Amino acid sequence: MSQKMLFEMPILNNTQRKIIHVDMDAFYASIEMLRHPELRQRPVIVSHDPRQTHGKGVVTTANYVARSFGIHSAMPAQKAFELAKDHQPVFIDPDFPTYRRISDQVHDIFHEVTDIVEPLALDEAYLEVTENKLGFKQAIDAAMYIQSKIYRQLGLTCSTGITYNKYIAKLASDYRKPFGRTVVLPEQAEEFLKRLPIEKFQGVGKKTIPKMHDLKVFTGADLYALSEYDLIHHFGKMGHILYQRVRGIDNRPVEADRTRKSVGKERTYNPPLDNQADILDQLKLFSQQVADILAKRNLQAKTVVLKMRDSDFVTTTKRITVGEYIYTAADILAVAQELWTTYGSLSREIRLLGVTTTTLLSKSYENMTLPLIF
Questions:
Q1: How far apart are CA 91 and CA 79, in angstroms?
Q2: Active site residue: 32, 124, 128, 228, which one?
Q3: Exposed, middle or buried by CB within 10 Å (0-12, 13-18, 19+), for 230?
Q4: Is 82 one of the catalytic residues?
Q5: Tens-place pLDDT, residues 338-358
Q6: What count of Cα atoms within 13 Å lies in the side-chain half-sphere of residue 218?
Q7: Between the chain's N and C termini, which has fewer beta carbons within 10 Å?
């Protein structure tokens, strides 16, 4: 058997799963427009205003009005201003504590449907809904429930891709934005992928696109026409992956273990905190909020992190890893207070305070000490 034939042996494709990719629509900008409804018809750009930072800064995200002028994430803020300057652009400083808080509420809705949730960022996640808590037989019903509840409860929209694997689900969620819902059945997958521009394929980046064009590959159909041998020859390991993906093959599981690497709460204060009682009150509040999230996620933690930022904008982060896993508000507060007592100071007022737990483990696992027998 030739080496080329070995490359092109058939690959098993699991098409029995039901997977949803949920992508919040212009998440940060949408939150800011909820706060400021009068800005809905103007270009809203979540970034430090380049007119106040000597042209520095990068766009975190932008609303769809701003995107219509060619503005996108990771663009220099100065360039964004130049593109929209004739349309009264509004620059808003990012408020990540608020975005994280609302992201937690979105994830609470995900977990009403399934606990097999794999977050990719604050604003997107994969959900495995083959078996689900609410008994939906069709994945589209689960997606409709999620989109409807997020809109009714939070006033935000999201787009969903509904299919049998992660790769297609992510492409599908981007297909009809905003507030879109795209279903790709197994028998539709190859045709869906063949219609896409090559630039839409995950794994085809800025450096890869010119090589694709040199090979006369402009669409998924062009990619499909190349042999696995040729793709590996030109693109190495990524060529093997693209050969599978354009044929609708992606057997990667939705990894629920990635749900949380940390759980935390923080807040920026204006005016700043300047007395011990207020500091302790906030530590108590954060500890309770973190404990509530740990309980909801059935998690426990070994590390507590205290974050402090003073009136000179100096940020200090200190942590303690304890010997046993903890999850109650009292235990978290005890460690947070120890960190404040050891490292905190009111010589300058406190502009930001936060408590985070890391080194997480599901409470389903039991910590057992086994005797050594010689």
A1: 13
A2: 124
A3: middle
A4: no
A5: 899 989 999 999 999 999 998
A6: 1
A7: C
